[in-house]
Amino acid sequence: MFSKLCVALLCVCSLLTTTVQAKTLLVFGDSLSAAYNLRQQQGWVSLLSQQLKSSHPDIQVVNASVSGETTQGGLARFSKLLDTHNPSWVVIELGANDGLRGYPLNQVQQNLAKMIEQAQQANAEILLLGNRLPSNYGRTYTDQFFNIYKDLSDQYNTQYVPFMLENVALDKALMQNDGLHPNAAGQPVVLDNVAPALLPMLND
Fold first, then answer.
1. CA 182 to CA 173: how far, in whole Å?
2. Least C-beta-crowded within 10 Å: which of 30, 98, 145, 200?
3. Cβ(190)–Cβ(165) under 8 Å?
4. How many helices (H) and strands (E) does the chain have?
5. What are phi and psi of 67, to 5 degrees?
6. Cα distance between residue 198 and residue 5, in whole Å
7. Catalytic, out of 49, 65, 153, 181
8. Does the annotation mark 178 as catalytic?
9. Per-residue pLDDT of the chain (204 residues; tens, 9 = 90+)
10. Choosing from 30, 31, 46, 98, which is the catalytic residue?
């Protein structure tokens, strides 16, 4: 009886230790990170989570991405997510819906800046994922949109991926019929774009 009790106590202590040591990676994005029109396990965030189970078993991945999310909507719920999950790392992937709707870019930049500031105040390390808009939105607007992410990364000294859909967006074999979202075959390529900037953060 005593032996069984000791084993049970050791198991409880082990679970508690694991919980204490576990760290959280929060992915905060829109449909590009929410596995839009796919099974959740096909999305790049789920693929990342599966990869980390073997390489970084102490890291829990929380995907708080919502299809259709804008920077304004994201900002409204970001603080609560930080309080709830207390992440050590945050991947911010927002802005594409703002750009597609032609929202003022200064407001997009301000919203992203506020989220970065909140995450840094919560002592989280940040990876900012940039994006591009279709060329039919005009050269000036699309260039200014693309530059937002680099400017913010420089200003706040975050990690940065210039274009998360590099080698995906213009390949019809990797995109869904809407021309905006990667299909299942494109998701691993998105992860390949993100991983070189993300994994070194997790190893620090």
1. 9
2. 200
3. yes
4. 7, 5
5. -60, 135
6. 43
7. 181
8. yes
9. 545 544 444 454 444 444 446 899 999 999 999 999 999 999 999 999 999 999 999 999 999 999 999 999 999 999 999 999 999 999 999 999 999 999 999 999 999 999 999 999 999 999 999 999 999 999 999 999 999 999 999 999 999 999 999 999 999 999 999 999 999 999 999 999 999 999 999 997
10. 31
Q: Residue holding tokens 């999950």?
A: 85
Structure tokens at 194: 């993100």
- Catalytic residue from among 83, 135, 178, 204: 178
Q: What string of DSSP letters covers 70-122?
A: -HHHHHHHHHHHHHHH--SEEEEE--HHHHHTT--HHHHHHHHHHHHHHHHHT
Is 31 tagged catalytic?
yes
∠ Cα 131 132 135 (to 5°): 170
- Picking from 65, 61, 70, the residue whose alpha carbon sits closest to that of residue 36 is 65
Known catalytic residue at 46: no
